Amino acid sequence: MPMRVPADLVALPAGEILAVAQEYYDAGRLDAAARMVHHVRAAQPERVDALLLAGLIAFRRGRHDAAGDLVAEAAERGGGAVVWRNLAEIRRMQARLDEALGAARHAVSRDPADPLGLFQLAMVLYDRLELPACIATARAALELRPTMPEGHMKLAQALLATGDFAAGWPEYEWRWRIPGAPALLPPTDQPQWNGAATGDRLLLIADQGYGDAVMFARYLPWVLARAPDVVVAASAELHPVLAAIHPGLELVAKWDEVRAFAAYCPFSSLPLLHGTRLETIPQPLPYLAADPHKAAAWKARLDARLPAGTRRIGLAWAGRPTHNNDINRSTSLASLSPLATVPGVAFVALQKGPPAAEARHWPGPAPLLDLDAELAGFDDTISVLAGLDLVVSVDTAVVHLAGAMGVPCWVMLPFAPDWRWLAGRADCPWYPALRLFRPATPRDWPGLVAQLAAALAARPLAPAHPLAPAHPLARPERLP
Asked: What architecture is domain 292-458?
């Protein structure tokens, strides 16, 4: 996010007003901050620090275009490195990556010794998928400020996206030090587990998002072979999934339910302890299966409500809006309507949350079954997935559920995707049943959906495949 107005731009007497406005901005009192900035700009419309703070206020309000205009004007009027750095971040969030790159380079040229300028440049380079340059720039920033957690995290993401897991996992551990990062667990004197065999009680924590928990749950057999006495702390929504992955696993949803433990470990640190490399990602797959009786009941419901002989395709088009890259990874249901022009298909809406309401206004010619009100939890979603021929989804938890089950899934990735999908691959070493689709430019949903529609028409799947394999050690066939 853009930074605060630098102190060296503040001059009296208007500077005193802007200093108070900055305090209001930092405290989230945007209306009060905006009133004070407006007062200064009315008297001094060309004042750079007032333009910058006005832009930052607009940015935090979600008015990115107005923010970009204001900060660009501040830059043109002689703004220094901090102004250009903020402009680079705003342009990055607008997916105007050429302008973002130019602004970031301006920031670095104005203050080569500023590690934040180099970090901002690394952010832009990642979004442009210039990963070797991103890695080099992040390392340059860390030479200037070795303890900058954001720099280590950007380096980790770029290394992991290139497949350099050996260098990437240690850098990934810096995520806990980022200012504002939520605490992993309540204060404790117990250490973080180092992966060594132990007979003592180990607390595993399903940190990060739902999809991450499903992805890293593959490590449970490896953990239990070293620490048989395990309890997993996870949100209640995940309990049916984790219980299906490893029946009998002790699960808790509240910290006061956790009995005394000797060490703890987040799910997302397990790849580091395991020493995971691309060729040693834990197999076999699938490792998640639906309850056979519940899956059969859901298949019967789909049989009764969808045209016979059609290929059943599940759709999910949006992730949680709190995700830090949701602006790039989520789309609308309407953008997927070209898929409905392919003959012989029927769709099942798997979407949850507010975007699920879009299913009421489906514009496509093929039928769409809206299950929002009927999917009470992930166990229902898993049971529905078991009766589908294909899932088409943005990068959200549904992808991980399908991948863990071995259900064929086509994933619509952002231009600069999360590290786990790697760079430039159509396959996924974490989930062999997935096929990855990548846009040619940022936020090019029409182009991406056109790729999917062409692939669906060119390589039709056999209609109404049987339930996904129920045995957790069965290996799925690769998607053709």
From this structure: 3-Layer(aba) Sandwich (3.40)
